[in-house]
């Protein structure tokens, strides 16, 4: 009976799920942190910081995540820092996620018209104050949807950690399929992977639902409205 | 209407080029406390560039700017930042901060610049909103205000820093005609209260009524300067006469 198979292995699945959720949460926190840092660096007034951010983004963005993962796990011991599989997965997801997230942050900041910055400057505010109180709060609106997309990708990408032997949810599903196939002779692959699909779907749906909730709250306060007049023209 | 003798802001021999265009070509002007200066001229004449040099938003390529007798180092952003608390600016497109209510727009700078604590700033902001006749819109977001209302909030926001002088960069040019009057009336009333102001505008009626002195600019140079009666009635320069006739 298919349900029996799921119930028999429920405890097993839950330990895998715990790993997945732990890895996903840590990855999201770290990746968002890196995105903010690198994103702000890429709009800095100091050229050196902008170039450093650009190099970081271009490097980590242009490598496939899978290669990235293996590169870090097998490369780390060579520079004298052996990493546990979980840590290697966290690091590579963070570096990759941070690079993509930084571009989203940069795009969001640039979407806020220069006039906002000029207007705040004219009031005598310092540069960091302008970012903190004027630009970044407004940048939340253009950043939120693509950042949510990146977050769901990262949650799904935690399944790659299975390649390093981390016993996260997908790996558990794999083990259950293999074990049952060997023991009973027929493969419950469709059932088990279907179950795994539903679980990932549930987690990612929760994320996107949360994101839409915040989007609606932001819209209510006029975050998405740009109060510019029609027929505005620049004069010398 | 008193004017003191020492200029509040003095600009000498300003030059500013954007690419190959000379927006300012050896421009000098000064304003004294209590004086109302209006700058007129065709598009591209350098009017906007000039007033943006007076609060450091544009840094001139050459020339000297003194504020209250003290020379301002052209590249010193820190010095300009402190000066900007004494020089308010109102823009053509008002650029209120859309994520803040009217009253939050007004209190942001005074509180963050350390001018006054939040409760005091809110009290002052409410008084300013009354002054611009928008007391009931304190908690409204800019998206729900008309253009004229937004511009009046923008003026209140600039006044909140208690500036010594207000710069206006074509404050009514982007407004629908029926809203221009409410903003001009406010500016006239500010002038009557003794506010020192430099106004770049196309509104000749306003200029005639309020200005102590009018500058006519063309192609990056001040062509003629004088009292309104001279600039609008008895021009010394033919270019001034032609411009005034064209827009009259």
Description:
The complex is a heterodimer of chains A (236) and B (248). In chain A, helix 3 (47-61) crosses helix 5 (85-111), helix 5 crosses helix 7 (127-157) and helix 7 (127-157) packs antiparallel against helix 9 (189-220). Chain A has helices at residues 2-8, 10-41, 47-61, 65-75, 85-111, 114-122, 127-157, 169-184, 189-220. Chain A is built from nine helices and no strands. Chain A is elongated. Mean pLDDT of chain A is 88; it is low at 226-236. Chain B has 248 residues and is an alpha/beta fold. Helices cover 37% and strands 25% of the residues of chain B. Chain B has helices at 47-53, 77-84, 102-112, 118-131, 147-159, 177-192, 204-210, 228-233, 238-247, and strands at 7-18, 21-32, 36-40, 62-67, 70-71, 87-90, 165-169, 196-200, 213-218, 221-226. In chain B, the strands form two sheets. In chain B, strands 6-7-8-3-9-10 form a six-stranded mixed β-sheet, with helices on both faces. Chain B has a four-stranded antiparallel β-sheet with strand order 2-1-4-5, covered by helices on one side. In chain B, helix 3 runs parallel beside helix 5 (147-159), helix 4 crosses helix 5 and helix 5 runs parallel beside helix 6 (177-192). Chain B starts with 6 loop residues before the first strand and ends with a helix. The model of chain B has no long low-confidence stretch (mean pLDDT 90). Classes of the chains: A mainly alpha (236), B alpha/beta (248). Chain A binds chain B through residues 115-116, 118-126, 129, 133-134, 137-138, 221-223, 225-236, and chain B through 23, 43-49, 55, 57, 81-85, 88-89, 91-99, 108-109, 112-113, 141-145, 147, 150, 157-158, 161, 170, 173-175.
